[in-house]
Amino acid sequence: MRHQLRAKIIEVCDKKIAAKGDKVGLSFYAFFANKNDNPELLMEAATWWIETHQLDHFVKAYTIKQMINDGL
Question: Organism's domain of life (predicted)?
């Protein structure tokens, strides 16, 4: 996964955790605007989330952040 996407994921996770606490869940759509302005990056996130790691639709933000920090 490219550095740009990893940085965005960490940023969003940090914001969600700060606003709603440790138990907040999110989907990979949380990393994008409501419009599909970067389909290549969206597909990269979807592939990482769905195909590579077979995650549920909603996953705890701290879990995603830890996965990214661990280099997964």
Answer: Bacteria
pTM comes to 0.90
Measuring CA to CA, how many Å separate 1 from each of 7, 18, 20, 24?
Answer: 10, 25, 27, 23
Determine the pLDDT at residue 5. Answer: 94
**pLDDT > 80? residue 68:** yes
DSSP category for residue 29: G
Q: What is the largest CA-CA distance in the chain?
A: 30
**What values do phi and psi take at 60, rounded to 5?**
-60, 135
Q: What angle (nearest 5°) sits at the alpha carbon of residue 18, between those of residues 46 and 16? A: 20
